Amino acid sequence: MGRREIPEINAGSMADIAFLLLIFFLVTTTMDTDKGLIRKLPPVVDDIPEEIKQKQRNIFEILVNANDQLLVEGEYMQVTELRAKAKEFIKSDPSNPNMPEFKETDIPGLGVVAVSKQIISLQNDNGTSYEMYIKVQNELVAAYNELRHDFALQKFGKPYTELVQKAGSSDAIKEKMRAVKKFYPQRISEAEPKKVGGTE
Amino acid sequence: MSKFRKKGKKGQPAVNTASLPDIVFMLLFFFMVTTVMRETSLKVLNITPKATEVAKLEKKSLVAYIYIGKPIKALQGAFGTAPRIQLNDAFKGLEDIPLFVEMERDARDEKERNKIVWSLKVDVKTKMGIVTEVKQELRKVNALKLNYSANKTERISN
Q: Does a structural domain hold residue B4?
């Protein structure tokens, strides 16, 4: 009655099994997280609102035609020049009568400040390519982001992106972020698209 | 004599591979945690445009995808080359969007329903006509949070 030895299980094939699983997951899954420009659509309103007359000087008009050409404030322009032009407009200049007006606004964290009444109006054609549309959108968002960045640095000594990142951690930072946002509010209005084939 | 023979039998000891499964399992778990299952197979050509101001979408479970583009080569014979909308796994028309939105909403928690981001994955060569139509359709069913899917680039050109 000798002691019976339990034979050891051969674990040599364990690696093969694990490899098989690994390869299965590598093939069937994706790793890319979705990135993009985040925008909000305006809700549909049932009753047609009264036409609010905006002064011409407060509106930054962008037209994109079917050949992907850009007309900004009546001027032909390249998409790479748009950012600087938009920044200039959004910032506005009190001494220039062609630039947007200012409105005294009370912003928590900043006090009463003069905020420019800028609106960006974007109209594109049905034949405009999506690539061009994204480029224009991108430049406009970039213009706002750069202005906010500069303003946040100047007022709070921190870049805007940092404020956004840390907004969840404290209310003080959140207020600062909101203040910057309110000082340069993103007002991009997309005109109802042109319909081919007459009236509705 | 036998003493010497034993000494002569000098081979390299085998590398211990006992920890190999552990290493592979570690890799496996890493991939299982960081990736998600591919849900749809693309039926449209889809090269998203490049932009500099892209933001990451935080919660993957709150994103619903709408693909727009030309049908892929293999399907061009049957469907032509006009841009089409793909929802989930099939080509759909504009009129199917409200139903799609409803189903995506139903699939999520009640709390999260108004947080869904509608990610438009549109091919660069598509014309804006179909995109604006889709946008109008989404507006009608109150699906307002959009994401224009784009890849990060350092600078854009003309």
A: no
pLDDT in tens, B118-136: 999 999 988 888 998 899 8
Does B39 reside within a domain? Answer: no
Mean pLDDT value across residues B54-75: 87
Q: Hey, what are B58's tokens?
A: 């935080």
- Report, as an integer, the average pLDDT of A165-187: 86
In a domain, B16, yes or no: no
Interface touch B156/A80, C-beta < 8 Å? yes
Q: Where are the alpha helices (DSSP H) in chain B?
A: 2-8, 20-34, 73-79, 97-106, 128-140
Q: What is the pLDDT of residue A149?
A: 92
* Complex-level ipTM: 0.76
**Cβ neighbours of A126 in B, within 8 Å:** 127-129, 132
- Round to whole Å and give the CA distance between A175 and B11: 72
pLDDT > 90 fraction of chain A, expressed in percent and rounded:
8
Number of domains, chain B: 1
Virtual CA dihedral for B78, B82, B84, B89, nearest 10 degrees? 30
**8 Å CB contact of B142 and A18:** no
Using the beta-carbon criterion (under 8 Å), do B127 and A130 form an inter-chain contact? yes
CB-based contact, B148 to chain A, within 8 Å: yes
> Which residue of chain A is at minimal alpha-carbon distance from B39?
A29
